[in-house]
Amino acid sequence: MALQPVPLEKFYRLLNHGPTVMVSAKHGGVENVMSAAWSCVLDFYPNPKVTLVLDKAAYTRSLVEGSGYFALQVPFANQAATVIAMGQSRKDNPNKLADNGIELFYQSDADIPLVKGCSAYILCKLIPEPHNQQTHDLFIGQVIAAYADDRVFRNGHWEFDEVGDELKNLHYVAGGQFYITGKGVNVKSDMPF
Amino acid sequence: MALQPVPLEKFYRLLNHGPTVMVSAKHGGVENVMSAAWSCVLDFYPNPKVTLVLDKAAYTRSLVEGSGYFALQVPFANQAATVIAMGQSRKDNPNKLADNGIELFYQSDADIPLVKGCSAYILCKLIPEPHNQQTHDLFIGQVIAAYADDRVFRNGHWEFDEVGDELKNLHYVAGGQFYITGKGVNVKSDMPF
After folding, report:
1. Looking at this predicted complex, what is its ipTM?
2. Which protein family is it in (chains A, B) (predicted)?
3. Which CATH superfamily is domain A3-180 in?
4. Does B140 touch chain A (CB under 8 A)?
5. Chain B residues whose beta carbon lies within 8 Å of the beta carbon of residue A141
6. CA distance B178 to B187
7. Sign (positive/negative) of CA torsion A89, B11, B70, A14?
8. pLDDT tens digits along B20-46
């Protein structure tokens, strides 16, 4: 495998199918990762944006607010236990990354920690919106870079039909229950999105 | 099949796995339906909310702004061609509902049109947020009711592993290409969401 840059024109395809993500951020030398089911594309290039819901109880929220940056990573199905483990708060276990064998890395010159072994990464700069953050726990990010694992995403397309279930994505429901991404279906279309 | 009410405590499970939705609304006697890949849960009960992105070019946007109500419906995989057809704007084809055999119905006493034959329905009252709507094309809805088809959603749980592919959900990528919902995976968890 190799991580390849994804043009910002195509970043939305990394999230469009509604995968569960893990959110990462760093501030004051502290790195953290949390799972999130509630993240979504907000706009296309030339204004690529995402939304992300961060509860006031989430430790990662303070890192996002402090640094003004975060990343979304799209885990593989074989990371389901990691996604559940990252649903635990760092407030309850300050060693949750080490205890769960999470390895972080940094890509290009962005100071945003990324979790090794995911299918795709979307790096974002927070667009401060104090009303949304306070009233709705809603954060908006400007996408500044994106990467994907070329085993599953090539030339702007997911290739899930060519890989085993372990390399598909996760779609969280509740109570530790996910669905993995299923079969591809193509309907001829000139839809703009 | 029978459409059953979904308690508002459980409505988020209808969207958590990231399905593509169709948005419906009515104003001034005009009903419309459009497809949308960008909708997401924003909060749990007792404050159940969703986000929805509606481009300024979308006809349905004017109906949502005018009436203050909309519904999200989660189509079955066998409705993929309908989802693509509803991606066409009513501005380009004022007869798009009739031309595509869309049948609408109304549930309980809400004056929001719903598309027959979908797996789940989330009825929403717009929470006006002029800045979000103008700057980000972002709409926030308070969930007022939810329903699901009991062939696939029972007692608060999707039962996709028990049905054929045609009764799974759709996850849109781009260019007429979807993935359908795949196999269930369960990781023991005490995650709060």
Report:
1. 0.95
2. Belongs to the flavoredoxin family.
3. Electron Transport, Fmn-binding Protein; Chain A (2.30.110.10)
4. yes
5. none
6. 26
7. positive
8. 999 999 999 999 999 999 999 999 999
